[in-house]
Amino acid sequence: MMESYREEIIPENWYNVVPDLPEPLPPPKSESEDRSSIEFLNRILPAEVLRQEFTFSRYEKIPEEVREMYRIVGRPTPLIRASLLEKKLNYSGKIYLKYEGATVTGSHKINTALPQAFYASREGVDEVVTETGAGQWGTATALAAAMNGISSKVFMVRVSYDQKPLRKTVMNIYGSSVVPSPSMETEFGRKILDHSMDHPGSLGIAISEAVEYALTNNKRYLLGSVMNSVLTHQSVIGQETIRQIEIEGIEPDVLIGCVGGGSNFGGFVFPFLKRFRNVEMIASTASEVPKFSKGSYKYDFIDTAGILPRIRMYSLGSDFVPSGIYAGGLRYHGAAPSLSLLVKKGRIKSEEVSEPEVKDALRFFAAATGIVAAPESGHAIATALRYVKGNLHEKRNIIINVSGHGNFDLSIFNR
Amino acid sequence: MKLAVYLTAGYPSNEVFGAFASAACTAGADRLEIGLPVREPKYDGPEIRRTHARALENFSMGGLASTLKACINGGTEATALRYMPDPAEFGSILGDIRESGIRQMIIPDLLIDHYEERFAVIEQMNGAGIEWIPFYNPATPDSVILETIDRAGKWVYYGLLPSTGISVPTSVETVYQRAREVIGNREIVFGFGIRDSQQVSLLRDLGADGIAIGSALVNFLQNSDIEGFRNYLGVLNAIRN
Questions:
Q1: Stretches in chain A below the pLDDT threshold 70
Q2: Does domain B2-240 have CATH number 3.20.20.70?
Q3: What is the pTM for the complete model shown?
């Protein structure tokens, strides 16, 4: 009974927002007269991922095998009414949490790792490779590869590698080989280490290393965020939430999530755009990585090495190296093109939160919900707390996407 | 199914370009798409980018009218393709296009990079006696097509891929069906990334009104291989008719 109820909530299709955007999505760009960096993606991405990236089909059928894996890893994730939090805040409305931390890898990242690894294995690839910042994406890739019977390799940003040894252990348990980035395994990594042996690394550098490794070893690279196909896979979050609020019998008023590359946020809010035209959407980012307020909306490289095409997005520059902030998943220099477009058009608002406020919010939230959320998700929570405090007497239904748990990030509380 | 042949004006030289334009018309092209060279052909792939760089060295609008005259008189329609010029130049470029005998124009970056000005630009084109031929692609939202389609000239250009001359996996059927659903019965010419006869047959079977070929022809121009060019168009004619 329980299982069939769960399966009804897992959607049958992914939703791609591009056909429903208010303006055309600017295409990726490749300026070379010798080769196209768009065509070059054929050599590093699973073909089916690339097909989804460029077909822009509003609905893309989720393979039954992937739906089954979604169920095994904990989908649908719960929608939790945080009534004690409401009471603690004296809020007149309702607060709900879409808790992506309830998946077995502890974050939303598994939602796209599973289909990408599935397609790679079906195309005969024996190893997938990727980068990871906070470790959530690497963990998801490691498990997704294992569940699909192939190997995986993860370039982990050095500062996270050093700060989060347990993340590495989990990835190793799933069978993944994890190396700190910059590493000696790629030309790009060696070049950086030549200049600076103790370089802390960045997501842009780790992406460049993973792409180079995929290319030189004929493996396939898995995309953790930013690209449209990833946001499409993540649409399971928002679609499930819509079914769950239908069951709950409520209308959504405010959706809040955090933004690194934009995939959990896009996956959460995009399915609401057409049907709930007035719903307020707030993207929360780190003040230390102020992409929406200090970045510019321009064509920029996805990776630091400039191997991948340029895409139009809010960006702080592909060579941006943030200070070693507490929320590794928010360190990326840009944000997904579709999300960037909607922020630029004013449909999605953005807010910035800094470390002290995030830590306070995480503590306050944990005591009322039991969830020790990931520091990335802490931004969404802090933004939600601000919102509630400014609208105490409103009866709005707020839904927060809690993108992951923070069980591997506890050291931030000792800083 | 119609055939639109894309050539960058002045590539590789004004003479060779003129000879190929005439050859395309006598070989049965229904439309000539004339790319006016620019420094930054933003959404073009490597082959077409090279043609722009080279053509910029040779090309002037002055000779275009005589080059196109026989083609246009013979019933081939000519369409100019030009990335959005500076507003200061736009009026004179429209005037030059009209002088050349061309009555239709595609601005591939209009809806992408100049979205806010779209209606003013179309009005200016129409005011100069030039029809607006929209450039849509799978990343064009349905609402954008619906609000602009009434201003379109007699046909619509639909790019299958994000750039010309590249090969990336895409579902032609899915893209076709969505385009047809939103655009309706208007004439749709599909381009960007069409290279092999299989794609041409597929588009024909799906019901496409036309195909546009460009990057696949660049080598013939580069080598002044007019026979090879004619043969290639002959193969396309055999499939499309």
A1: 1-2, 324-325
A2: yes
A3: 0.95
